[in-house]
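U., I forgot to send this yesterday:
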Amino acid sequence: MECRLEVVVVPVSDVEKAREFYVDKLGFRLDTDHQAGESFRVIQVTPPGSACSIVFGRGMGDGKPGSVKGTHLVVKDIVAAHAELEAAGVENSGPVHFAEGGVMTPGPHPEGADYGSFVFFADPDGNSWALQQIVSPAR
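Result:
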């Protein structure tokens, strides 16, 4: 079976704050903002260059705001991506890599290894994200 992951639902408590964070701060493309009455609103945004979108809103199920943890977004340059987060005022870990024994260590991976450098951050509800540097994917 061939299938593609194209949407990740992210539960949020404040739709406007989430829209501001993902669209205005992170620069994700606003695909749709649809409201059907007071109890239902869906916003779909897509990270630049991604085939997978993020959906959040009101009346979309029973997910607990802040419960999405560790979703990865892939970037080609972790240092440049970190600079963009900083410029947008997004609190983050700064570039880190995992040294011997799995110890999180400040700075990008010393050899610039694919899958080796990260920046961690969270949205206003605590849904956590990781930027991961991959220049040449294994697949």
